[in-house]
Amino acid sequence: MPDFRTTCQIHAAVLAALFAVYMLLPGLSFLAFDITATPEARFVARRASIMLLGLAVMVFLLRGVPPSVARQAVVLGMIVVWGGLAVFGVVALMRGVIGWTSIGTIVVEAVLAILFVPHLRSRPRDDV
C-alpha cells in the first residue's frame, strides 16, 4: 500500500480529474453510466464538480499532516465517500438503473476507499 502522502496525491489527482470531466464534459460521465444526459442533469453534474474540486484541495493539503484525530476524520470521510459511491453503484447496477459500463467506475471507487483504510489510525504507531 502507498504511504499516506502518496495516497493523498493519488486521491487529489483523481478528484481533480473528475472535477475537470464533470465541469467541462459532463456528458462523458453519463456515457460511462449508460444513462441519458439531459440539460438539467448536465447542470447538476457541473454543480457537483465544485465539491469534487473542494475534496481534491482538502486531500492534497492533508498529505503532509501527521497522524491525528483530525486526519483520521478526513480519512474516514473519504472512505465513506468512495465506499458509499461504490455501494451505491452496485445497487444501481443490480436494479438496472445504470448500465454494465459502470463496472470500471465501481471498481475504481472501491479501490480508492481501500487505499485509505491503512491510514485510519489517529496516533503514530509506537513500533515505528
From TrEMBL:
Transmembrane segments: 12-32, 44-62, 74-92, 98-117
Claim: Transmembrane helix is one of the keywords in the record: yes
Keywords: Membrane, Transmembrane, Transmembrane helix
Official protein name in the record: Transmembrane protein
Taxonomic lineage: Bacteria, Pseudomonadati, Pseudomonadota, Alphaproteobacteria, Rhodobacterales
